[in-house]
Amino acid sequence: MNKRLQCSKKSYPGGDNCSLLKGYSYSLPEIYAARDAGQILCLRMETNDSCNLKCKYCYSYLRRKKQREMPLKVACDVVDQAVKLGLRSVVDLGGGEPLLYKHFWPFIKHISNHNVTTVIFTNSMLIDAKIAKRLFDFGVSVMAKLDGKEEIQNQLTGPGTYKKIRAGLDHLLDAGFAKPDGRYTRLGIAPCATKLNLSEIPEIWRFARKNNIYPNIECATKIGNATSDITLNYDEVCWLRETLKEIDEKEFNIKWATPYSAIPAHSCGIFLSGVAIKRDGGIALCPEMPSVTNLSDKTLAEIIKQPPFSKARDLENNIQEPCASCKFFRLCLGGCRSKALIDKNSIFACDPYCVLLKSKNNKNN
User: Fold this and answer.
1) DSSP-assigned letter for residue 62
2) Of 365, 360, 364, 338, residue with least CA distance to 351
3) Which of 29, 152, 174, 192 is deepest in the core (most CB within 10 A)?
4) What does the pLDDT read at residue 288?
5) Residues 23/12/57/350 CA torsion (nearest 10 deg)
6) pLDDT in tens, 77-129
7) Whole-angstrom Cα distance, residue 201 to residue 240?
8) pLDDT value of residue 13
9) In this predicted structure, what is the pLDDT of residue 15?
10) What is the rounded distance in angstroms from the CA atom of residue 312 to the CA atom of residue 304?
11) What are the angstrom distances between the C-alpha of 237 and each of 115, 198, 204, 260?
């Protein structure tokens, strides 16, 4: 690798005084150090296809033709392999709803026994006071769903879901998940921005900031359930990111280090220091991408040393223009690689939703 990315200590795209989610938020020097050492900082895992929702924006839809689960032995073995490679956290995406995985609690215990943090992405509908306390005692961080007010939430995720989602979120708050530990919180909310709830996202962002909750806004990708009827266009994405950036700066004194990242105020480092594990044992560069190999074929240590992982980890030498010469590249990492793949059929192309493209296009016209 010829031109290693370098970052100062001030290397969180969200600035220096915003809340971070334990097990999910890593500084860019941490990400680069793990990459340079041939390590895996964080696993993204899909343990089961089963889900109690049918979200209009779900990218897992195409994989849920048959509801199956990852055997516990396989799930634990993946973690054991990653621990030898420096693993610090496992983000359990489920593939469906993680709490429906029949081996959920033994799996969480296995991760905890390695002193590794578990982060679960959940719709929170199954979380009551008892489950919230149990998750808290295991040191789990939780990324909960909240897409908007009752009418919009029910429209996106199904009739009657809003009250159950909010009840689960309230149980997490009561259990202390949003209690600050330095810069870290153990509670996040992850709205999926669509045409239906776009106007509500800024208020959700404010709610998160005011309550020490980590906001994780992602835009619906045109795979699975999401179609052009609900996905945002370029101008809508630009408006959203500029609005959230202004809210942070004016209302919370949080200055973003970069005007753009795939997830506002956050850089996804999975390409440099992570691996995505599918329910069937497939290995992918990120959860939104198809598998490129399988656990039964190679070990994790072998997989990350070979293409396409080795090329993806050499991002600074493979990224295409205009990212290659952009002064913000070392902070945003070129944005979302999966959206680049969908739009340009290359993981090294520019994220089509980069807000900087607007000014660059204006200069060229």
Assistant:
1) G
2) 338
3) 192
4) 85
5) -130
6) 999 999 999 999 999 987 899 999 999 999 999 999 999 999 999 999 999 99
7) 8
8) 54
9) 57
10) 9
11) 38, 9, 16, 11
Rounded (to 5) percent helix, strand, coil in the chain = 40, 15, 50
Distances from the Cα of 72 to the Cα of 87, 109, 113, angstroms = 18, 12, 15
DSSP, res 99: G
Helices 201-210 + 234-251 axis angle, to 10 = 30
Which backbone phi and psi does 247 adopt, to 5 degrees? -60, -45
Query: Which of the four pLDDT bands, split at 50, 70 and 90, describes residue 364?
Result: very low
pTM passes above 0.90: yes
User: Does residue 363 surpass a pLDDT of 50?
Assistant: no
Question: Is the previous residue joined to 13 through a cis bond, with omega within 30 degrees of 0?
Answer: no
d(CA 10, CA 144): 28
Q: Is the pLDDT of residue 226 over 80?
A: no
Q: Go through 73-94 and write b for each residue having 16 or more CB atoms within 10 A of its CB, e for each that does not.
A: ebbbbbbebbbebebbbbbbbb
Mean per-residue pLDDT of the chain:
89
Which spans in the chain are helix H? 28-36, 72-83, 104-113, 129-137, 150-157, 161-174, 201-210, 234-251, 270-273, 300-303, 309-313, 315-318, 329-332, 337-344, 356-364
Q: Which amino acid is at 210?
A: K
Q: How far apart are CA 162 and CA 119, in angstroms?
A: 22
